């Protein structure tokens, strides 16, 4: 099982940016957390963070035929990027959307998720744990424990 973990703009500023919303742990801490649970679950992981929409599109395209699934926190591009939605649809890999904060309880402009339209599941408001929940979901999907079209 190989998963790509994608993180969008400003997530490299974790620990500094709005700690009341995103917590005090850094992006390096998030990387360590992801690598740790992947080791535990027997998942091979690739991690990529970018502040640039096109680089995220490139990373999704490059995942085609190479990974079993994508865990994506598109950050602000969640609410704006048809290009990321189209890239996820193009590669047609199982994808799960993650948000550290509970976007459903925030500003109206955060209520739309384009990327989410190509994802089989969303975890929002669970902090770092959401990434693990997403990986476990993709693992269960691959192992046939759960079906594909539940959400
Ligand atoms: C976020 C939520 C987005 O609305 C915001 O633009 C982010 C982070 C989250 O993880 O909670 O940058 O994706």
> Helix/strand-derived class?
alpha/beta
Spatial order of the strands in the main sheet? Answer: 2-1-3-4-5
Average pLDDT: 96
| Molecules bound to protein | 1,3,4-trihydroxy-5-OXO-cyclohexanecarboxylic acid
Layout of secondary structure:
Blueprint: E1 2-7, H1 19-22, H2 27-41, E2 44-49, H3 53-62, E3 69-73, H4 82-91, E4 95-99, E5 121-124, H5 129-142
Parallel strand pairs: 1-2, 1-3, 3-4, 4-5
1,3,4-trihydroxy-5-OXO-cyclohexanecarboxylic acid binds next to loops.
Keywords:
17% strand; alpha/beta; 151 residues; binds 1,3,4-trihydroxy-5-OXO-cyclohexanecarboxylic acid; single chain; 35% helix
Description:
- It is built from five helices and five strands.
- Helix 3 (about 55-60) runs parallel beside helix 4.
- The longest helix is centred in the first third of the chain and has 15 residues, at about 25-40.
- The model has no long low-confidence stretch (mean pLDDT about 95).
- The chain has helices at about 20, 25-40, 55-60, 80-90, 130-140; strands spanning about 1-5, 45-50, 70-75, 95-100, 120-125.
- The structure holds 1,3,4-trihydroxy-5-OXO-cyclohexanecarboxylic acid.
- 1,3,4-trihydroxy-5-OXO-cyclohexanecarboxylic acid binds near residues 10, 76 and 78.
